[in-house]
Amino acid sequence: MNHQPFENWIFDESNLTGEELHKLETHLDSCSDCQQLRQGLRSASALFQAAQMVPPVPGFTQRWQASLVERRLAHQRHQARILFLALAGTALLLLMLLALHILATSTPVQWMVAGFQSTFSLFSTWNRIQDFILELISFIPPIVPIAFWVLFTGGLSLLTLVWIISLWRISSQGASQK
Amino acid sequence: MSNPEGEWLQQAQHGDDEAFTNLVETYQKPVYNLCYRMLGNPQEAEDAAQETFWRAYQAIRRYDTQRSFITWLLSIAAHYCIDQQRRRRLPTFTIDLLPEESAPDPAPDPEIVVSRSEEEKILHQILNNMNPQDRAAMIMRYWYDFSDEEIGKALNLSVSAVKSRMHRARHLVAERWKSVQPQSSNPERRNHESPAI
């Protein structure tokens, strides 16, 4: 037996016209399949409509508050990681661009010569600085160098410590904090 | 939306965590229920509901106050659950782990308890056979009385797509009913049965 359009009508009964409803009822009187279908739909719908909302286990809001702290921390760490990766990526890209530029504008022999010259110049500059400092120290009373070195190394250690703490804070708590 | 909720919403949009917590307290039940009906597992539903509120918390500044807050919230929950369903592909339903009601009946009739548990199983079996979007549409219609337009907005579907999905889901419900209904269950006796399905 052809069940269309009656089968479709069963699922859209509320939008049927009076004539369509009459035709549907007539068809249902002679079609047990469609009757069963409508009965199934009505019974199941009644079950759906009678079903209650299921509440969460008590303490949902407290669990939310606890998880908010963790999630926020994880989010900030994620942001810090992204920031770090972005900076590292940019630095790498710049280095690669620089390398490409050098490759395009000079030959390997030229880089080697430039490299040797730079290294030599670096060493000679360092030696000149050392000579200058030693010359300077020889003019100052003997107590001053000790105080200077104590202050200098102390300050340098403090700066290094502040730098390490800042890095640790940024990596563990993120760049921004509410 | 009532006044305190409107105020909480505004305060939450300005970064007030306490106001947002009040919204969580108010909407935990509908959000959890949707997640539970979608996923069928209390633990997964709890995680999904918590994730929904976290996503809402992150996006609260972008929330358009002209829109219904519950529709917006349930939309986030439904999309998350649909994604979860698509990822796992093999849904698991643990009916025995149903959470207790927050205010349980002091002396529940054992017959009613058994009957409700049986009905929950049938509901899950029927919902389990639908695809996630059809399931979300059915849940929104039956538990939240959402119109086709509201379902469409929540699920990013056109009204005609919602109608088509509802039609398909109802067909499946009617077909599945024959195979899952227990001998003892007789919903015909229910008072709140509506013929307008």
Describe this structure as you would to a colleague.
The complex is a heterodimer of chains A (178) and B (197). With 178 residues, chain A is mostly helical. Chain A folds into two domains: 6-44, no CATH class; 76-173, no CATH class. Chain A has six helices and no strands. The longest helix of chain A has 46 residues, at 60-105. With 197 residues, chain B is an all-alpha fold. Helix content of chain B is 68%, strand content 0%. Chain B is built from eight helices and no strands. In chain B, helix 2 (17-39) packs across helix 6 and helix 4 crosses helix 7. The longest helix of chain B has 23 residues, at 17-39. Chain B is globular, with a radius of gyration of 18 Å. Chain B starts with a helix and ends in a 17-residue tail after the last helix. The interface between A and B is large, with 37 and 54 residues.
Low-confidence stretches of chain A: none
**CATH homologous superfamily designation of chain B:** RNA polymerase sigma factor, region 2, helix turn helix motif
Q: What would you call the structural class of chain B?
A: mainly alpha
The rough form of chain A would be described as elongated
Overall pLDDT metric of chain B = 80
Provide the gyration radius of chain B in Å.
18 Å
> What is the ordering of alpha helices and beta strands of chain B?
HHHHHHHH
Strand content of chain B: under 5%
Portion in helices of chain A: over 70%
Total domain units of chain A: 2
What would you report as the Rg of chain A, rounded to the nearest angstrom?
Answer: 41 Å
Main sheet attributes: strand count, strand direction, barrel closure of chain B: none
Average of per-residue pLDDT values of chain A: 85
Strands of chain B, total number: 0
